[in-house]
Amino acid sequence: MTTIEAIERLGHAEKVRHWSQEKPWAGLRLKNQTTFEARQVRMDQLGHITEQPPLVGKPCFGQPIVYVRQGATLMHRNHDGAVRPTRCGRCKVREACVMVCHRRLNVTPEIGDAYRLFVGRGGAQGLQEKHLKAQAQVVFDRLVTQLIRHGQFNSVNDAHVSAHYDRERELHKARDAERKRAARAKRLASGFLDDGAMDLLCRHRLFRAHLLRELVNSQAQLPSRLAKMPPASVEVTADAWLAREVLKHTRQKVNASSVAREMIRMKPNRYANHESLRQRTSADLARVELLEGLVPPGAAGPVWPRFDLLTEIADEENLPPTTI
Fold it and tell me: Apex CA 34: angle with CA 29 and CA 40, to 5°?
């Protein structure tokens, strides 16, 4: 379905052709709240609008071909026989629109002659009458051609309309992003892990492995479970932390056996024997608990801060875009 914004953004020729159709408003709901008078509109000698109150949602305003084909008729008879105002007849800025269209229909001799010839051949009514339609259509098409050849009539309102739809688009994008964030948060809260959440967990796993390596390589007095840890044990401990967090978030049982099984699932090329891995995983999980409670001298918090996936995702989504 054609939208009002799409019509507003059409090029000059496409816009003239659109409004020259028999039913150019099909599927459109025009706004009719704005009101101003013809004296509030200023034009130059070339038919451009130099001063006008802001108007959005009325892409037909000031379009000569709309007035020629649709605007001269103020009342029409419905299928039920009732007589009602036409769209142009009930438009609250009709007076200003008619003034603009009249000026533009006489801006050049070619446009003016084509317009008067069309009126002389029956005008808009001629396009409806069988015995007049053929001749009226020929001169109507001539007027359409002259308006297209003339080029666009500009208006100070053009920038206002463009800015309005740009703002609406940004608001729509923001609302859509918020809707998606809320839907994602709901899925995550139910125990679902998407690619983004898994990526965040893996980055936190790398961060914790780095912190542990730095701690082990420092000269600080460490508990026996941490002192002189080989690099391979640092990696296994970080993997055990990651497996535990995945199980916790997906609401699965957390013990040495389930953590070992998850480590094998995530890194089958590194871990294969479940029984041997299960036997050492108890010590790795105890080490994780120790790291989450151990506060080194002079530090503000534990070596490994406690992790909450939903909080971390919310914090990350609120960060400003990174610039490189």
Answer: 135
- Report field, pTM of the whole predicted structure over 0.70: no
**pLDDT-derived band of residue 77, with 50, 70 and 90 as boundaries?**
low
Residue given tokens 């998850």 in the structure block: 262
26: Cβ contacts below 8 Å, ≥ 6 apart = none
Alpha helices by DSSP H, listed for 151-217, are 157-189, 195-217
**Is the separation of the CB atoms in 181 and 317 below 8 Å?**
yes
Q: Which residues contact 134 (CB under 8 A, 6 or more apart)?
A: none
**Residue 37 · residue 96 · CB < 8 Å:** yes
Is 101 a residue whose pLDDT tops 70? yes
Helix H or strand E segment including 235: helix 231-249
* Maximum C-alpha span of the chain: 105
What 3-state DSSP class applies to 85?
strand
Enter the tokens of residue 231. Answer: 């690099």
Residues 198-223 pLDDT 10s? 999 999 999 999 999 999 888 778 88
Quick one: 61 exposed, middle or buried, by C-beta within 10 A (0-12, 13-18, 19+)? buried
Give the CA distances from residue 82 to residues 75, 95, 114, 304, in Å, rounded to whole numbers and listed in that order. Answer: 10, 25, 34, 78
Start-to-end C-alpha separation, the chain: 41
Q: What share of residues in the chain are helix, strand, coil (percent, to 5)?
A: 55, 5, 40
Residue with token string 């005008």: 123
